[in-house]
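Re: the multi-chain job from yesterday

Posting the exact lines I submitted so nobody has to dig through the queue logs.
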Amino acid sequence: MPRDFQWKLPGAHLHLKKKEGLLTRIHLDGWLLVALLGLMGCGLLILYSASGSSMQVTLAQIYRFGLALVVMLVVAQVPPRYMRRWAIWVYLATLLALVAVLIIGIDAKGAQRWLVMAGFRFQPSEMMKLALPLMLAAYLSQRHLPPSWKHLGAAACILALPVLLIARQPDLGTSLLVAAAGLVVLFMAGLSWRIIFSFMVLALSALPALWWVMHDYQRNRVLTFLNPERDPLGTGWNIIQSTTAIGSGGLQGKGWLEGTQSRLEFLPERHTDFIIAVLAEETGLIGVTLLLALYLVIIWRGLLIAMSAVGTFSRLLASAVVFTFFVYVFVNIGMVSGLLPVVGVPLPLVSFGGTSSLTLMAGFGVLMSIHTHNSLLNK
Amino acid sequence: MTEFRRQIKDPEKENQIFQFRARLLLLIVVVFMAVLFFRMAYLQVFQYDQHVSRSERNRTNVEAIPPTRGLIYDRNGRLLADNLPSHSLTLTRELAGDVEEVVGRICSFLEMQADCQATLMERSRHRRRPFEPALLLDQLTEKQIAILAVNRHLLPGVEISAQLLRHYPAGEAVAHALGYVGRISAEDLEELDRRAYSGTHYIGKTGVESHYENLLHGEVGYRRVETNARGRVLRVVESEPPRPGVDLTLHLDSQLQEVAYASLRGRKASLVAIEPSTGGILALVSSPSFDPNVFVGSLDDQAFTDLRNDGNLPLFNRASRGQYAPGSVVKPFMGLAGLEMGVIEPDMTMEDPGYFQLPNDDRLYRNWKRNGHGEVDIRRSIEVSNNTFFYSLAYALGIDRIAPYMREFGFGQQTSLDVLGAREGLVPSREWKRENLEELWYPGQTLSTGIGQGYWLTTPLQLATATAVLANKGEWVRPRLLQSAEGEAAEFPDAQARDPVPVMDPQNWNIIHEAMQEVLHGHEGTARFSGEGAAYRIAGKTGTSQVVSLSREFEQLPPEERPEFMRNHAVFMGFAPADNPQIALAIIVENAKGGGSKIAAPIAREVFDAYLTPERLAELEASDAP
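And the result, structure tokens for all chains:
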């Protein structure tokens, strides 16, 4: 390939400085890797405290992180073109698993989310967070963009099917995240602003109707969000205790392992969804800022990769992966700090949980594959 | 086909849109991350103080440590009020899971009555904050404790705790003097210092327990503890031990008290005995009485309701609050007034025709002996309790001289220092009648006053006090229960000392004392049967307190045939030994089948005998000798 043509490739003008190092050879991105490892390290420290100094929980998380890193490494070796080719099969398999969950899934907290396979428990809905953008990106990248009405209709079906299946479990949080992951692909594919605005207006006007289809516990969450003092010892307990934990951390925090709200068990779900409250309580605004900065570095770097990616499929997929990650962060922190109603969304790579960190790291594997295979093109 | 589609795609335009939207996405991300940052900063910086105090309130609990209530002893060091360990059952609703089911199990394990479930459910809600254990049952027996301990695993949130409960070993005999403690009620809460009582469940309700509540209660201690969300105490942050209440020693002689209570034999009656030299109350008995232990600990209101509805008023302290016409026991005081004011001379006699008549009035004021006592002087008229002599004396003195002089002895006034709720009684006077009844004073009323009837009202405590002053020949000692607190002699700094009863001729005391001795030891004495065989001399006076002015119909009947409510009260007052008074007492038996001489005087003798034991008399003799 002639060198001057290379510079005319889409995104080439933004092309990041290439380094022909070990990392590139194994298809990893240094910036992203360091930021992710830093995040995992912080996450483990906070998890150790949040779990009540439980080495057992922390070790389990370390194993998962190890597994997730392996998954990331493996995914990063797969060139984007193979991903595009396999997208339909991954999507269909995950969709099948979602149907299976509804039929033979395991109950947990009044919702069917888990599937047991070969002794492993996993949530197909989590995998859908990656499978859906993969499928949409593969579909749309082969169409004329911005998409025509026909293609848009097909894309909407691809999106709606898993979202509705997940909402049926019921798992509102995940279905919203999956929907967001799909929508961002459509958005990046150049969905016209007219459609976007009319869709937003439609969605806003449909909000009251949502009330009627919501489950009781979901309604309660909304009411509690509007006024936590409505039931301070019941549904309001979580949010009151978490804002108290965050606020009482102040600027410097109460010190690692010294958070009274979490150590004395006032804070619920402290090693899973509400873990940011533990961090905020023990390390204060300084720790929170550091964590937000880490997230920002990861997202920034991810978007940069997406912007510099070669080929529509890669761009769409990369931007969807990054944006989904951001939605995770925003919804979780927003919920724990009382900006959003309580939805079951973990804090990525900090909360204790298996499937979510696996999908997230697989997503970052995709990003790294896009980035490094891009670079290899340049050789 | 694929090639063709590629051709009509416009990669440049696609890329333009994508690059623009990617930047937009980056902007959205930065803005939203900033929102998160400012939200956190708002909570952690602007609302910091509010959240810190909330988290502190979460974390620490101040637990009050109740002080141990002071003990109460009698003058001989016998324990009257003790603190005994008692086991109670508490339930923490948050820890119980299904409260209803746990309560149901408690009821069935302990084989309680049918209403147990409802009662215990109600009690489980009585608490001030979440995770506070609520008291379900009190005073568990050993067996109940064992049953509950065995089934512990079925009773989440249920705890058996031990605490000290007030106990009154002497029971009903001293109930009225000592009073009792009871659970702090809503009304109590309004008046007391909630902080000081934050760990205390009981408060003195009546008697000494109530009057000396401040001394007995002590000072609350506290400990600040760190608890987790389930209310479990993890460590003590700081603490201050409570200061126990002060131990009190009373003038009461519990043995005498018991003898006196027994001597009343369950009648509606009361007795007060005072040590004339100190004013110390040796015995203060009201009958019928009640077991004060019922009020402590028991969560059962039925016992209290029963007592309150009892027609014999066992909860009513007759000794300090019962007001009666004193009857003939006022005669010694009247006699002294007559001698002092020169209305009569010691050897002046008069002929008693069996009645007295006012000038220009046909009405006959009768002696109790219809045909009279013949020739009587002051001594004999006291000995035989002649009415005619005292009608005549009262007429000569006039109400305006009688009333003030009787007040010198404490009649019509509350003089006790620490008897809770003691009543004032009433000495009628011209002014009193004008102010309260808006009527003029009639001379006939002076005559009834002269024999302690009519409007005159006194309490047994007041009568005993007047008797003590009489025994002291006018020296005043205000009656009191408290002898010492924590070994230090009790002082009543606020109490006004009373001047001695004024007398011109001290010899007059002796005349009255001698006459009173004749009541018990003279051959005509109204209480001579009670004076017989005593190892010491008693000075006393019997009386009959009229309940209503008897209609002719009932007057014809002997007392035992009259309906009970129409029967007069039997009264006795006296002191002994007459020449060196150690004990002065007053007795009133309501609606007695007979007067003071038949009913009240024998009781007095029993009490005197119990107090003036041969040993004590020997001691007295020994100390008198030098």
